[in-house]
């Protein structure tokens, strides 16, 4: 069977990573969560006090970019790769609401984007990859054989993310999660560099009323049409 590149883009908390992980497992492909990379850079920015609620020293971040080393390491017990920032496993730290609140601001910085896009293209050069993010079908792999664009109502997405965070013991309110989802959507779709847009050749899936299984089998059919 021919190896392909699968690009999954869409708004925050649309279940992109759940779908991407299911597909990677089924096809024995590599899965890359590019959001984790932007989150790890954000964590670095926060830890170095380059950003807070009313201040963002972009120059300090840009000057430090060469010191940021990102790596995915496969965790066989979990069945997917975890994010390492300068050698430290930061998988838990990057999923907090604090990081979510700053990540879209960090992801607006062009120098951050070009560093990460280069690394993503390198990871996908041999195909057999499922990558999810905001600009995968438009910028990272404009020639991907299959492009999916995922949407769902902001309320549905916030409810899902809220339940996820609660399960992890994160003490957040639904209102704060909804606010974060709406704010990130706004920044991600309005930024100058690589805004979140649907690629002309992407297939749009609104999963507000689709179960995971229904969505998965619909996408498997799309893959069968391509390979
Ligand atoms: O996918 P996730 O919600 O973890 O992504 C976190 C943030 O990282 C997004 O809201 C967006 O600002 C940024 N991002 C991006 N481009 C990508 C992936 C994520 O700008 N390819």
UniProtKB/TrEMBL annotation:
Q: Kindly state one GO CC term assigned in the UniProt record.
A: cytosol
Give the Gene Ontology MF terms in alphabetical order.
ATP binding; dCMP kinase activity
**Chain positions recorded as ATP binding sites:** 10-18
User: Sorted alphabetically, which InterPro entries does this protein's record hold?
Assistant: Cytidylate_kin, Cytidylate_kinase_dom, P-loop_NTPase
SUPFAM superfamilies, from UniProt?
P-loop containing nucleoside triphosphate hydrolases
The record's catalysed reaction(s) read: CMP + ATP = CDP + ADP; dCMP + ATP = dCDP + ADP
Enzyme Commission number(s) of this protein: 2.7.4.25
Q: Where in the cell is it found?
A: Cytoplasm
Kindly state which keywords UniProt assigns to this record, in alphabetical order. Answer: ATP-binding, Cytoplasm, Kinase, Nucleotide-binding, Transferase
Q: What is this protein called?
A: Cytidylate kinase
Q: Identify the species of origin.
A: Flavobacterium flavipigmentatum
């Amino acid at each position: 069977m021919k190896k392909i590149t699968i690009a999954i883009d869409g708004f925050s908390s649309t279940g992109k990573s759940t779908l991407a992980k299911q597909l990677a497992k089924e096809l024995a492909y590599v899965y890359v969560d590019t959001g984790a990379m932007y989150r790890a850079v954000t964590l670095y920015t926060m830890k170095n006090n380059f950003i807070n609620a009313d201040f963002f020293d972009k120059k300090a971040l840009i000057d430090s970019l060469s010191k940021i080393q990102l790596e995915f390491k496969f965790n066989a017990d979990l069945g997917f790769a975890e994010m390492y920032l300068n050698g430290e496993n930061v998988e838990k730290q990057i999923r907090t609401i604090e990081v979510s609140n700053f990540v879209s601001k960090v992801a607006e910085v062009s120098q951050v984007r070009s560093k990460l896009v280069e690394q993503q293209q390198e990871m996908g050069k041999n195909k057999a990859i499922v990558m999810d993010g905001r600009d995968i079908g438009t910028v990272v792999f404009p020639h991907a054989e299959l492009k999916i664009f995922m949407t769902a109502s902001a309320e549905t997405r916030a409810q899902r993310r809220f339940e996820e965070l609660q399960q992890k013991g994160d003490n957040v309110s639904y209102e704060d999660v909804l606010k974060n989802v709406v704010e990130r959507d706004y920044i991600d779709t309005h930024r100058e560099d690589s805004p979140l847009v649907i690629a002309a050749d992407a297939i749009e899936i609104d999963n507000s009323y689709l179960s995971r299984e229904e969505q998965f089998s619909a996408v498997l059919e799309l893959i069968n049409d391509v390979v």
